[in-house]
Amino acid sequence: MTGRIFGAADVASDITLDPQVCIIGSGAGGAVLAAGLVAQGLDVVMLEAGGHFTREQFTGDEAWSFDRMYQERGARATEDLAFTVLQGRTVGGSTTINWTTCYRTPDRVLAHWAEHHGIEGLDPDTMGPHFESVEHRLNIREWPAGAANQNNQVLLRGGQALGWDPHLLRRNVRGCVNSGYCGLGCPVDGKQAMGVSYLSDAVRDGLRIYSNVEATRIEHANGRATAVHASVLDPHTDRPTGASITVRPKILVSAAGAINGPALLLRSGIEGGGLVGRRTFIHPVCGVAGLYEQPINPWHGAPQSVGCHHFNVRGPGQMGYFLESAPLQPMLASTVGSQFGSEHSAFMGRLGHVGVLIALGIDGFLPEDVGGAVKVKADGRIWLDYPVRAPLLEALKDAHLNMARCHLAAGALEQVTLHSDPVRIRGEADLALLADAPYGAHKHTMFTAHVMGGCGMGGDPASSVVDTEHRLRGFENVFVVDGSVLPTSLGVNPSQTIYGLAHRARGFVAAAV
């Protein structure tokens, strides 16, 4: 069978499809899974709510990219608007707009899952071959120190001076030109996003992808999914065109991500004993900006090439966090702070000399840390509730102090926090000002690009949504293969974990057909 990527214009009237497998979502999980299934000769249809875009359209225009390729046009947020949630919405999902940082799942995290969540078969030896396979296909390699941009050199230089052992990151790139515009779609296909790697392989082998098609409801009875109902969307307005697609597969796979996936199940009346949507984790992020004498040009060069895990594991009852750098294209930079008028104009005027450090909280490992919850409102809108609890408040405060220390050690002339009333730091003596600053929701800018959980995997049916083979509990023919199955966050960027899990899941799904 010849594969193809269809658009909204190709579905002018209602159609019904009867493949062996239907995969909802084309991101890290769905793409890796699909490539493996069609390579085995299976007939697979994939539904993707976002549009299909290629490098010819990736011109570095921030407004175009956020409008076309991000969930809710870049405005997705938690219910209380405390956290901005950056996720992809395009063929290839978030891999099209992520910053290419790749880590294997840490051994200590796999051990925690085994001990506390009863997950068997995810030990380092078992996962090793799966990680090796995706590393080969995606060319995941350490980015050379000499190619690290000045923004990342801030973390490397400051972290080394403080004895924190920062390290070079691994990236899924081939032929990268170090443009720095990974978050807007790679203009040279150097980033090995799903669209130019696993999805390309899968379409060659027969995968049919329907873009601009949003799955709205799963029809089910007696422990089996019988149909997926989906609406065709206008690619310009995201409104239904009136045409629909009904898919009646033997096997259904949800790979729609850790917000849209649980929401689809909930809209379909699948609650998993009240567990669907629960224990949603986000690696909550805060940041501090530093002004340097030398040019930083934070919009240029690989967005992330240095990391620091010195604070991953802290004292008893304390939430850990890890440090990275974040790129600042002008539009993104203009939205991260709380300054107005002349102060905002001055900040933007000095953007070429600004470096940004970010701290990402590691949620889900403390007994009392249950994360947030995905819910669906009566009108169908998705609600992500993520309360800021005491351990996170303490971690935010500690992270601000250590990011400020790192900027000073790297030679920053001045720093500004992202508080509503920014704290300005020009020397060691000013660090004390951070002790009295407020922390938490609406006190300073917070965001996330890593959403995990909501359909947690586990060995105990009473506390997990999917079993250790990704099968949705209570269903014979439904699997979940994306970041929603993670029972905690990771303490590292999640893309490679999802690639590896999807590679492992190929055998389970194929055997069920």
How would you describe the overall organization of this protein?
- There is one protein chain.
- This protein is α/β, with parallel strands linked by helices and 513 residues long.
- The chain has 2 domains: 4-71 and 85-104 and 130-139 and 183-276 and 490-512, FAD/NAD(P)-binding domain (3-Layer(bba) Sandwich), CATH 3.50.50.60; 145-171 and 284-448.
- Helix content is 25%, strand content 21%.
- The protein is built from 11 helices and 26 strands.
- It has helices at residues 28-39, 62-69, 107-117, 124-138, 150-161, 198-204, 260-267, 330-336, 341-349, 390-410, 495-512; strands at residues 4-6, 15-17, 21-24, 44-48, 84-85, 101-102, 140-142, 167-168, 170-172, 208-211, 213-221, 224-233, 240-247, 251-254, 280-281, 285-291, 306-308, 321-325, 354-361, 373-376, 382-385, 414-417, 424-425, 447-448, 452-453, 478-480.
- A 7-stranded antiparallel beta sheet has the order 8-17-18-19-16-22-23, with helices on one face.
- The model has no long low-confidence stretch (mean pLDDT 96).
Question: What would CATH call the architecture of the largest domain?
Answer: 3-Layer(bba) Sandwich
- Main sheet? 7 strands, antiparallel
Tally of contiguous helical segments: 11
The helical percent reads: 10-25%
Estimate the strand proportion.
15-25%
Low-confidence stretches: none
Mean pLDDT: 96
- Alpha-carbon distance between the termini? 18 Å
Q: The CATH topology of the largest domain is what?
A: FAD/NAD(P)-binding domain
CATH superfamily of the largest domain: FAD/NAD(P)-binding domain
Secondary-structure content class: alpha/beta
Give the CATH level 1 class of the largest domain: Alpha Beta
How many individual domains?
2
Total count of strands: 26
Shape designation: globular
Strand order of the largest sheet: 8-17-18-19-16-22-23
Radius of gyration, rounded? 22 Å
